[in-house]
Amino acid sequence: MTTTLPATTAPTSRREAAAVLDEAVALARDLGRDDVAASLARDGSRLLDPGARVLVVGDHKQGKSSLVDALVGTDLCPAHADVATALPTVVAYSEEPYTVLVGPHGREDVTAARLAGAVTGRDDRAWVQAEIGRDVPVLAAGLTLIDTPGAGGPGGAPGVAVLGELPAADAVLLVSDASRELTAGEVELLAAAAGHVATVVVALTRTDLHPAWREVRDLDAALLAARGLVVDVVGVSAELARHARTRDGTDLGRELAAASGVPALAELLRRRVVEPRGCRTERALQRHVAEVLRDVRAVPVVELAALEGPARARELDEALAAATARAAATKERSARWQQTLADGVADLGADVDWDLRDRVRQVLRTAEETLETVDPAQVWDQFEPWLAEEIGRAVATTYLWAGERTWWLAERVAAHFADPGAEPGVEGTEPVADGAPVPAGRFTAELSALPELGTPDLDRMAFTQGLLVGLRGSYGGVLMVGLVTTLSGMALINPFSVGAGVLLGGRTLRDERRRALRRRRLDARRVVRQHADEVQFVVGKHTKDMLREVQRTLRDHFTARAEEVATGAAAAVVAATGARDLDAERRRRRTAEVRAELARLDDVLARCAT
Amino acid sequence: MSALADRTRAVLDRALAVYAGRPAPAALLRAHRDRLDGPLRVALAGTLKAGKSTLLNALVGEQIAPTGTAECTRVVTTYRDAPSARIVAHHRDGTPPDELPVVHRRGALVIDLAGRTGVDELCVDWPSASLREVTLIDTPGADSTRPGVAGRARAFLSAEEAEDAGTPGDGADVVLHLVRHLHDADVAFAETVGEGAARGIGPAGTVAVLSRADEIGGGRLDALMTAAQVARRYRADPGLRRHCRTVVPVSGLLVETARTLRAAEFVAVRDLAALAREDVEDLLLSADRFVDGAPVPADHRARRALLDRFGVHGLRLATTLVRRGAAGTADSAGLAAELVRRSGLDELRSVVGSQLVAHADVFRARAALGALERVLHEVPCGDAEGLAAAVERVRTGAHEFVEQDALVALHARGGADEEARRLLGGDGPAATARLGVPPDAPDTDVRGLALDALARWRRAGEDPRAERARTDVARVVVRSVEGILAGRT
């Protein structure tokens, strides 16, 4: 593709993309291709999902929830001087406001007070996630914020909740108190995040309390630059933003809002996260529409050639042969992509299983070594949360890895449809405005057109951290967004429900003082192993479900595409045959109609290419 | 001098004779032996910018520990009382310690390493009444991003590498663990400190300090009251008791500034307070507004300096106090006293006094015995078994150790047994403090109360229906009361 990405996309481009989609759907329906119309509408709704997901992460009590409230502009996330957020909270756009708690036992609409209780961990039931929908401008522009429980600290590794959310995130916003420089744990968290998402931003909160926040900001920037991390550091004050809200409309209100730094942060997120994401989505959508319409276009082209009579007979034969060849090639390819998909899913299943086993085994080994040196009865109180955290981390890491691999698989399957050898373009019918033939290895070219990407060679590239960043902009990547978002919802439930549902049965170990130490150690080992087995069982079931879902989604999508191509080829033959049998008057009328259809098609295709 | 200290010194002397030919272990043991009579060594530990140096200044009442925006304390620094001021740098590579110049800048002591690298520890001698009973040790942040800095703090607090470094005076007897809030990250550090349990610190010798209490809940006027509520809630939390004896909220910045308040600063606060209340509130909505905002009686730089000294909350509080004309805030001394009163310093001092300094001999002995055990473990010698047995004898013979552990166990179970806590020495080791009577109570009363308590706790200790943890505590209490009766404490 030679079209280049505009530096910024005005929100009008989103409307334009939607309009092009609507036009394409109407066109397909008018041409009698209801199957194409339906699939376009379906893909379109998926691809046009505007939510750029921003993970709000950071250590405890740094002001994450307050910042989310300030960004959204209303009080949503329960913030407290002392009690910290214990549940991830997803704040997204919705015309109808909603507040929902999600748990292993289902979803439940709740009141704000109930939400506050659950999010700060005072509710008895084991909730997994809170979801809030509101109709406010910043969310409507395509921003979804995910407030996470505190993570980081001297341990350094990102928390389980953050890991679970990373595959579906577009950006990470680290919240850190402006009173001090970034800690070692926070820097580790940033480095981990930078491997998975394209944009990482640090928000220094409570600038209203700390006069030296600019010095801190510069120190942080220098520290991150020294680590080779490209990260924006901005100062914000949720407190000032709150004051600004109460004085809304006054000069002081505007002044405070500007001083709070929150509008600037929102603008930064819009420019760096929402728009590139929207831009990628729109571009992928337009490309998808163009690809489908080009197939559709073969029918009127063939029909027109037939209508215009013997003068174009040779052309007609060629076009017909091409359409048939295309259908045949698609059929042949369908065997290949199905093979890729089936093999990929099987490999993935085995790898994920092995990966989880390996991680859990390492945890088990450490656990058993520890238990050998201590008395389980005395350390169980500390041991139990440690084990739950470590196993949770193993599970979350496996999910993260599985998510990235799934993405990659989608890309490989999609690549079959972009095989240049299987792209028998009907000569002289290439409708793209610049008329350039489709270059070889289109997907590679598409990837390289994106600013943040190098030129990854998917065949040779080993699977590494950071690949996901590159794949986000590609066709398969965009296709996967909706899917992975759903999956990560599942993934998110897992590390948590594993902790909440698969309880460690070591309660009895604590009090039995009279039994011999040896016996206690044996019991502790048994309990730990049993726990690990159960976790693997539960997670194994979940990953298999997840993979099945992935396979089904990909198969349905690509099968529909293959059928569209075949239907198009058959329709072309029918149209050509029909055109030969028409009388002069009807032939004239039909010629005019087909020309009009072609003009409409070319018009939409031209709009796709801009 | 307590019997425990004497027994500990006897063991150390015996060990010193054995290790006479080995300079490094001998130096460590000698340092511990000399410290048995000295002030209690209190380390200030915690995360980056938790306010350790600020609290140190607050406790001393002078600006002797450098504080600032960037990470300030990068080496362990000991502040101790001495006839004259002196700063000595100890080096990691074993080169002899050298002296740094003592320089003051705007009322604050300046410690300039002057390009020295590889400084392992700084010792500051400083004449101060506040340092008479305790030696304060400032440590670097436990989560510093700078290589080696965090590790140094951890090593110091768990008294690792003490022998390698060979610097006398490593390790602390007790720890003030500064936290900004009470969550996992800090608890992780508490666990690091907790590793020192066997070496003499552990939860019994750790007090958690909610050190930036003025910033809790957005630095509003009632911030310190909010902090007090938070601390109260955590004091009742058995989870935290695994790591520390108790939690005390304090605003280090407020105390430091109040105790070093200058006349010019008071005038600036008074001028601010003379403005209309709404104007001051608007001005103090944020730090930036205060520094760059509409004209107030002071230039930008002076305002920034004022803000650095008081903090937003401190200025809100001070101006409100002066405007309301609260008790005696008409002059600088009055305002300082009022700020100190509200800062939580008194409570911290009383906790340090009654729970740590009062039991100083226990903590010092524990640290010394721990050090000796480590030496025995790492530097083999001919009499290792005999010395180990001697250490064990002191340990088991010292009811004070058992009392401290029982106190922590009592808290850990969330037991609100006030009498047990007191009898175990929770308010101080004196017989009167244990029995909850005034220090001048007549001996006969003390004896009567003790006999009464003895009978009750004996019964509790033998109650077959009570749970085991409870009878365990009761037996320790019985022995403590027997100690009172025997006039041992």
UniProtKB/TrEMBL annotation, chain A:
> Membrane-spanning regions, if any?
478-505
Q: Please indicate which superkingdom the organism of origin belongs to.
A: Bacteria
By its UniProt entry, which InterPro entries does this protein fall under? Dynamin_N (IPR045063), P-loop_NTPase (IPR027417), TRAFAC_Dynamin-like_GTPase (IPR051943)
Tell me where in this chain the Dynamin N-terminal domain is found: 54-192
- Note the Pfam families from the entry: Dynamin_N
Q: Which UniProt keyword terms apply here?
A: Membrane, Transmembrane, Transmembrane helix
Q: In the UniProt record, does the keyword Kinase occur?
A: no
UniProt-listed PANTHER family: SARCALUMENIN (PTHR43681:SF1), TRANSMEMBRANE GTPASE FZO (PTHR43681)
Q: What is the name of the protein in this document?
A: Dynamin family protein
UniProtKB/TrEMBL annotation, chain B:
Domain Dynamin N-terminal as annotated: residue spans: 42-147
InterPro entries per UniProt = Dynamin_N (IPR045063), P-loop_NTPase (IPR027417)
Q: Which SUPFAM superfamilies match?
A: P-loop containing nucleoside triphosphate hydrolases
What this protein is called in its record is Dynamin family protein
